[in-house]
Amino acid sequence: MSGIAKTPEPPYYAVIFSSQRTEGDRGYGIMADKMVELASQQKGFLGVESARDKGLGITVSYWDSLESIKDWKENSVHKVAQDKGKTEWYKKFSLRVCKVERHNFFEM
């Protein structure tokens, strides 16, 4: 997962997940990679962008509909990751769902 996601013409939806991690990995890296792979196989998935420094991580996933986002939230493997996130991996996090109505891209 690198670079800027190539998304279709709006409208579509963005799920913005911002987090602060606990110390240590405890399987986080493997699960994060697995979630990106699994999400990319879900109906309605359009792309993902992610960045993390020592204190803050931000992952933005793009979806074609609110229904697709709901289906991803309810995915059984994703639910396992959500539970581990709350009990082991995150000090705190926020999740925001936004409708993208306009976008612009620049590439040199």
Strand content: 25-35%
| N- and C-termini, Cα separation | 20 Å
Largest sheet: 4 strands, antiparallel
By CATH, the topology is Alpha-Beta Plaits
Rg over CA atoms, rounded to whole Å, is 14 Å
Strand order of the largest sheet: 2-3-1-4
Instruction: List low-confidence stretches.
Output: none
Number of domains as seen in the coordinates: 1
Assembly category:
single chain
The helix content, as a percent range, equals: 25-40%
Give the CATH level 1 class.
Answer: Alpha Beta
Shape: globular
Protein architecture, described:
This is Antibiotic biosynthesis monooxygenase family protein. Keywords: Monooxygenase, Oxidoreductase. Its EC number is 1.14.-.-. Residues 33-83 form the ABM domain. The protein is α+β, with helices and mostly antiparallel strands and 108 residues long. The protein has one domain (12-100): Alpha-Beta Plaits (2-Layer Sandwich). Helices cover 32% and strands 33% of the residues. Helix 1 runs antiparallel to helix 3 (76-89). The longest helix is centred in the last third of the chain and has 14 residues, at 76-89. The protein is globular and about 40 Å long. The two termini are 20 Å apart. The relative contact order is 0.31. The mean pLDDT is 94.
